[in-house]
Design brief:
7-stranded parallel sheet; 304 residues; alpha/beta; two-stranded antiparallel sheet
Length: 304
């Protein structure tokens, strides 16, 4: 397998020539090359900076005053969150620096990014969970996203050992007054970079599956139509302004104001169902960098 990968990728022989050299079938070589990539023996990198220089990426960055946008080609019948997550992992890897404190949110796309991150070792890197832990059975929990990314990067992992939502403001305030959580939130507020997604409010959305909000209350919010997106458990309207929600007083996690104070804010989101949600987040100035797909990028540029 290793020799096949070397002859094909380094010496640039054709698959037929590699098969002849190793005395196996061409089909075997194709299988070897596929396994070499799957196992990590071979990695192929596309320069994320080059992707950010495409016409669609530049137009998106200009329209929404972003530092940079990365637009990957849309691919029908392939989950957008997996491809956007993989692209986001590459963008993040290219900007990490020793001493960085990386805040990590949650969701399917964030989990995909954590799983797609290549193993590396950057000195004095800290990965911190920016939202409390969820009791939901969903497999995209904040603690999982944070832990996976930290493991891949060989970084210090700081999980937030508190529920995502508490029953009252008083209980939340008393819990956050504990010295250990005060130190943890000080670390969150000192983040140099943050990675987050944007959710819509549909019945099958990440927010709905997280069980943060009672289904009856969620349906009421949906019927009112004011809220267009959710960012780390906080609702926003079409202009990006906060929308009151029954769980606001009990949320344990980074605030929208604290999110906007982080210097580098990488938003990973795409797919047709999320156009209005992403638009709201961009209108609110929550992202400095965006990774999305080409169909979503075109829809965002066509939006009024």
């Amino acid at each position: 397998m290793t020799w096949a990968a070397w002859l094909y990728y380094v010496d640039e022989l054709t698959q037929a020539a590699v098969a002849a050299r190793l005395g196996v079938s061409r089909a075997s070589i194709a299988n070897y090359l596929q396994e070499a990539r799957r196992s990590g023996r071979v990695t192929i990198r596309v320069d994320s900076a080059a992707v950010a220089r495409t016409a669609l990426s530049k137009a998106l960055a200009k329209r929404f005053a972003l530092v940079a946008a990365t637009v990957v080609p849309a691919l029908p019948n392939h989950p957008a969150e997996q491809r956007i997550g993989a692209a986001g992992a590459r963008v993040l890897a290219d900007v990490l620096e020793p001493g960085d404190i990386i805040g990590v949110a949650w969701g399917r796309t964030i989990l995909a990014a954590a799983r797609a991150t290549e193993a590396s070792r950057i000195p004095d890197l800290t990965i911190v969970q920016v939202s409390g832990s969820s009791a939901s059975s969903a497999d995209f929990s904040p603690e999982l996203c944070t832990t996976l990314l930290a493991n891949q990067l060989g970084a210090r992992c700081v999980n937030l050992h508190a529920p995502a939502v508490l029953s009252s403001r008083d209980l939340r305030d008393r819990l956050l007054a504990e010295p250990s959580l005060e130190r943890q939130f000080a670390l969150i507020r000192s983040a140099t970079k943050v990675v987050f997604g944007v959710g819509e409010l549909g019945r099958k959305s990440t927010f709905a599956e997280s069980d943060m909000l009672d289904p009856v209350a969620l349906r009421q919010i949906q019927s009112e139509g004011r809220a267009k997106a959710v960012i780390i458990g906080r609702l926003i309207d079409a202009a990006g302004a906060p929308v009151p929600c029954p769980i606001d007083d009990g949320i344990v996690g980074i605030s929208l104001a604290d999110l906007k104070s982080v210097p580098f804010r990488l938003c990973l989101a795409g797919g047709p169902a999320k156009r209005d949600a992403i638009l709201a987040a961009l209108n609110g100035g929550y992202a400095t960098h965006l990774v999305t797909d080409s169909d979503t990028a075109a829809a965002l540029l066509e939006a009024n």
